[in-house]
Amino acid sequence: MSFTVVEQCTPRLNRSELAVPGSNMKFLEKATQSPADVIFLDLEDAVAPPDKDQARKNVIAALNELEWGGRTLSVRINGLDTSYMYRDVVDVLEQAGDKLDLIMIPKVGTAADVYAVDMLVSQIEQAKGYRKRIGFELIIETALGMQNIHEIARASARNESLHFGVADYAASTRARTTGIGGPHPEYHVLTDPDEAGHRQRHWGDMWHYAISRLVVAARANGLRPLDGPFGNFSDADGFRAQAMRAAVLGCEGKWAIHPSQVELANGLFSPSEAEVTQARRILEAMEQAEKEGRGAVALDGRLIDIASIKQAQVMVKKAESIAAR
Ligand code: GLV
Ligand code: MG
Fold this sequence. Notes:
Layout: E1 16-21, H1 25-31, E2 38-42, H2 52-65, E3 72-76, H3 85-96, E4 102-105, H4 111-128, E5 135-140, H5 143-147, H6 149-153, E6 159-164, H7 166-173, E7 188-190, E8 201-203, H8 208-219, E9 224-227, H9 236-249, E10 253-256, H10 260-268, H11 273-291, E11 297-299, E12 302-304, H12 306-323
Parallel strand pairs: 1-2, 1-10, 2-3, 3-4, 4-5, 5-6, 6-9, 9-10
Antiparallel strand pairs: 7-8, 11-12
Helix pairs in contact: 2-3, 3-4, 9-10, 11-12
């Protein structure tokens, strides 16, 4: 183990993250009943420029007046290059900061972007005497943000999670797709011809590098990595496949841009009963091994050692926090 200790951010269940446009009061009301682990009230790209002021007012009213039942709440502010962002932070925090858990910062490009918002938030928290410290969710969705991701991840003690904003990322990197998330048929490999000359086409995952890089930057800094939106909300199987790829790589959860995607994400990012049972068995076997002064043992014909304990503990802890909800 390195001498450097990775401090873990505030722990939260974040299997699903529901996006709710701040311009739509009905959607905001409906979201109060959502089973999503985290709900973000959007002031950014789901809100058209003429509606920005009203959306901000709606979000403040929703935070203050609706009954959210202890749900984790976030607000996505506008980007630092807009004229809306300072007022998003000042108005929302001054008027409803004590109801909020997180601020989501879009299109983060450099560590200084995070620093700037941190400075503003710190002043408001101090001036208002808020006891609860607001955490940050950072969307990595530009080439610049991806280039600077490691500095961004450690830019503030408020940082809690990195999110892969696939749509803006595609635009920023000029990827040849107009979809939001999921694979592209042209991103494939061809097998060599078989004896009859037939070749198979295997689709690849064009987001593999970006998500892997984001997982590393997040985990190396004690943050949660999250996969962003999957635009085709009528395609549950496509959502499942994309979410599962992200989960296998280490992501902790995924956005839901439609309420129907929340339960899917909650299910996919929860360990199965079989996985939890196996993790408990590993912990028991290792406890026994420790008593006998052994560092590794065999369980069901497979080697388990001290590293297995950590993997099993992560799994069991996750199951316990899900059960506690
Ligand atoms: C999310 O904000 C995205 O651009 O995908
Ligand atoms: Mg975006």
